[in-house]
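FW: tagging you since you asked about this chain on Friday. Here's the raw sequence from the shared folder, copied in full. Didn't touch anything.
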Amino acid sequence: MGNALIIVDVQNDFCEGGSLAVGGGGSVAAGVSQLLAAAPDRWDHVVATKDYHIDPGAHFGDPPDFVDSWPPHCVVGTPGSEFHPDLVTDRIEVIFHKGEHAAAYSGFEGHTDQGECLADWLRRHGVDQVEIVGLATDFCVRATALDAAAEGFRTTVRLDLTAAIGPDTADAALRAFTDAGINTEGTPVIRAA
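HL: got it, structure written out here
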């Protein structure tokens, strides 16, 4: 069986200067690129997810509560929805878009342009083990990792290549990873955006 790297939502709006910036987001983008360059044969497959909002309803709040509703972000067709420029994308085989018309945190809620979901794509390519990096540790990385484990993939979160929104939600994510049997490496970045 094979392994895959899942790069979660390393998009401009989630990095410094974006509408929903996570402190350290730009460093995560650069760090993922450095890892891909340093270990090009570490994974059989590299995939990515993108928040890809058209009209996600109550997911955009005015004002947002920063729990269930958020400022507008990653709107299709805007620069904020694009990958951060420090993320080298030449190894990414396929992108899974999520959240067009509703909130979607997990990459496993996403789909390719042809409509294939992440779990089906991974299985079709013989993947049984995944490593997860990206943004944010305590929201979309957390949801993606928990769904990966629930789908039966051996799952590792590279915390050194994630960044969290806040310490309390980061701690909750780490407890959730432990409870789900998810392996972790490193320490998540937590700093003001």
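FW: The first helix runs from residue 25 to 38.
HL: agreed, and The chain has a mean pLDDT of 95.
FW: great, closing this out.
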